[in-house]
Design goal:
The complex is a heterodimer of chains A (230) and B (447). Chain A is an alpha/beta fold and 230 residues long. Chain A has three helices and eleven strands, in the order E-H-H-E-E-E-E-E-E-E-E-E-H-E. Chain A has an eleven-stranded mixed β-sheet with strand order 1-2-3-4-5-6-7-8-9-11-10, covered by helices on one side. Classes of the chains: A alpha/beta (230), B alpha/beta (447).
Chain lengths: 230, 447
């Protein structure tokens, strides 16, 4: 496997992203290190090849945004919208993630070892997110599909206006949002949770220590008697 | 009327509680839900009809109607994009979603626009193969809901339109009621079938103009700086919104007035939020001028305006006030067949009449445009409807040229505010042109 390195202090971001958008057959299987990210925005966005990218340090907004096929590791923390609208692949943040982590993501797996900020998994559309720590308020707002696993605690209004996404929480939930309710942990959900924990590197965690939350589906079609919930 | 020999006054309706208001009160009381409809503001508003062109006479030479050229082309996105958009006519098709519109309707829009060298725009629901296939120039909307948003379609698009708002409902999100969430629409939007879909009104991963700058940079990075990036706003505070869009890095600003249509929104929202396009163009142009990006060569940010454009005079007036192009939505739907009187009996059966039908959210459109019902949708022949649209777009272009030549202009973009006067004090103040026969521009000069 070929290794390549870029230093963001010496090479403009545009050049690095352009390289990462190169011919998939040339990039496939390569491991690329990006040093000195120093919080730069839009690192490794729009990747579309099975390449491994390691960002050695902290990334700014939208790191690995719209990712397809690639594996992106941020060794530090990530700013707003990490892996936003990801389609496939794996994004792993070893530190903390800011707001809107994994927003609207449709596929792939986002792993955050530390805590995530507000609105984690907002409008989630099919991807999986595993957070080793806690998540801020309004997480999984209007989440449509996919799974959000939280090993720590959740803030206020978890799963507000939720559609068909599943939320697993091991710690406490400060409050549930409109139309989000606790569900019995069924076998299928337990299996999904177990597999996600293993894939995310948390294989020693007992699935029975989680609670499952989903949509009560009372707001799917408007009724005047539910007006106060909107 | 005379009863028992005593003279009676005629029945008198209240101007405040008029018959329409009374019917709305009764409807609300019976249902417990606000009235939802499609289209834009229906109330009477100051509009382009309140402006007149002066034409050439002694002080200016007109151009010969059929002999001397009057250009109509426009380039959009020259500031940062490697591949700007070149249109043959400055009349574009506004964003309308597959979901709100049927597949054949979207195809017809693509066919009609492509035939005359202009662009179409996707909507809140993603890009369909029919639409991409029939649209030579396709603008891909990037909306708060992100329904169907994916990087492959971003790369397939010719331009990206980041939608912050629209004229019918500035500050509101999308709405598509259960009747139109068909299996295909549900799959594209990743939603359960038959639910009432209410989209978010704010983008999920950015807040405010400083974040927007980073978001635009992300879209540019993903598409290798090739595509023009438009920012669409509903007309509310156009001077500040346009200035912030330019600062955030937009190549093009799309400004939509309150006459601009929506697929479905609360009537009270459509009629009471936002301002008419006539009042919005000059402040928007002022912002571009103050930032040095109005018609300034490569460093230009183009302005597209929409909301109530019906004919070539409207096109010419919008351009004279400083727009680079216009967008049409409602008029394009009418051109392909919306509200066609030949279906009067079916409109009557829906409790309305041809020309007034606006319950687009119910999906029962007799002409098959605002529906997902396959039987109704099959009524629209996309080839014939596309031809009607291309005819109409050609007429708009020719009409604008007629006016421009009469004003002595060899290109539509040479039209200027000095070619215009206003018929009313309101329109004079909004368009910042003198009241006809005077030098008075209310708000700018003394009477």
């Amino acid at each position: 496997m070929e290794n390549l390195s870029f230093d963001l202090e010496a090479t403009p971001l545009r050049e690095i992203n352009q390289f990462l958008h190169g011919d998939a057959s040339n990039l496939s299987g390569k491991t690329i290190h990006i040093s000195n990210p120093n919080g730069a925005h839009n690192i490794a966005v729009g990747l579309n090849a099975p390449v491994h990218v390691t960002i050695d340090g902290h990334a700014g907004y939208y790191a690995a945004g719209m990712n397809q096929h690639s594996t992106v590791t941020v060794t530090g923390s990530a700013g707003t919208g990490v892996a936003e609208n990801m389609m496939s692949g794996l994004v792993h943040v070893k530190g903390f993630a800011s707001n809107a982590a994994g927003a609207t993501a449709q596929g792939g797996l986002l792993v955050i070892d530390g805590d995530a900020g507000l609105r984690c998994g907002i409008s989630l559309k099919g991807a999986d997110i595993v957070v080793g720590g806690s998540v801020g308020s309004f997480s999984a707002f209007m989440a449509q599909s996919g799974n959000l696993v939280i090993l720590g605690d959740a803030g206020e209004a978890l799963g507000d206006s939720l559609y068909e996404a599943r939320i697993f929480v091991r710690g406490t939930v400060k409050s549930l949002g409109a139309d989000c309710e606790q569900k019995p942990m069924d076998e299928a959900s337990s299996k999904i949770l177990g597999e996600l924990l293993v894939k995310a590197g948390f294989q020693d965690i007992d699935v029975d220590s989680f609670k499952l939350y989903g949509s009560a589906r009372t707001l799917y079609n408007f009724h005047v008697d539910n007006a106060g919930a909107y | 009327m005379d009863t028992n020999g005593i003279p009676q006054t005629t029945p008198r309706f209240s101007a405040t509680f008029d018959p329409h208001s009374l019917s709305e009160i009764r409807r609300a009381a019976a249902t417990g839900i606000y009235d939802i409809r499609g289209g834009g503001a229906k109330r009477k508003l100051p509009n382009f009809d309140d402006l007149l062109f002066l034409g050439a006479s002694m002080s200016r030479y007109p151009l010969e109607g059929y002999r001397e050229k009057c250009g109509t082309d426009v380039i959009l996105g020259s500031r940062f994009a490697k591949k700007p958009i070149h249109l043959k006519t400055p009349v574009t098709i506004a964003g309308m979603s597959f979901g709100a519109l049927s597949g054949p309707a979207k195809e017809a829009l693509g066919r009609g626009a492509s035939a005359v060298g202009t662009s179409t725009t996707t909507g809140d629901g993603g890009m369909t193969p029919e639409e991409r296939g029939q649209s030579k120039i396709l603008v891909y909307q990037y909306l708060p809901s992100r329904y169907g948003m994916n990087p492959d379609d971003l790369r397939r698009a010719d331009a990206i339109e980041l939608v912050i708002g629209q004229g019918a409902k500035p500050g509101g999100g999308g709405m598509l009621l259960g009747q139109k969430i068909s299996p295909r629409v549900a799959k594209m939007r990743c939603l359960p079938e038959g639910i009432d879909q209410r989209s978010a009104c704010r983008h999920p991963d950015w807040t405010g103009p400083d974040d927007l700058e980073i978001k635009i940079a992300e879209l540019r990075e993903i598409t290798d700086w090739q595509k023009p990036i438009y920012v669409k706003i509903g007309a509310t505070r156009p001077y500040f919104d346009v200035a912030l869009a330019v600062k955030a890095g937009a190549d093009v600003v799309v400004l939509d007035g309150m006459q601009g249509g929506t697929a479905a929104t609360q009537e009270v929202f459509i009629e009471h939020v936002g301002i008419p396009i006539l009042a919005a163009i000059r402040p928007a142009v002022q912002a571009l001028q103050d930032l040095g990006v109005h018609r300034n060569g490569k460093n230009s940010v183009q302005l597209i305006v929409s909301g109530g454009i019906r004919n070539g005079a409207d096109v010419a007036k919008a351009i004279a006030l400083g727009a680079d192009a216009v967008a049409i939505g409602t008029a394009a739907l009418v051109a392909i067949g919306d509200n066609d009187p030949q279906y009067e009996a079916e409109y009557n059966a829906l409790g309305t009449t041809a020309g007034a039908y606006d319950d687009w959210h119910e999906g029962r459109d007799p002409v098959g445009i605002t529906t997902q019902d396959p039987t109704l949708a099959a009524r629209l022949d996309p080839v014939k409807a596309g031809r009607r649209l291309s005819n109409y777009l050609s007429v708009l272009t020719m009409e604008a040229q007629v006016i421009a030549r009469a004003c002595g202009k060899s290109h539509l973009h040479n039209l200027e505010p000095e070619d215009l006067v206003a018929l009313t004090i309101e329109s004079a103040a909004m368009a910042r042109v003198p009241l006809a026969g005077t030098t008075w521009i209310p708000g700018s000069t003394n009477p």
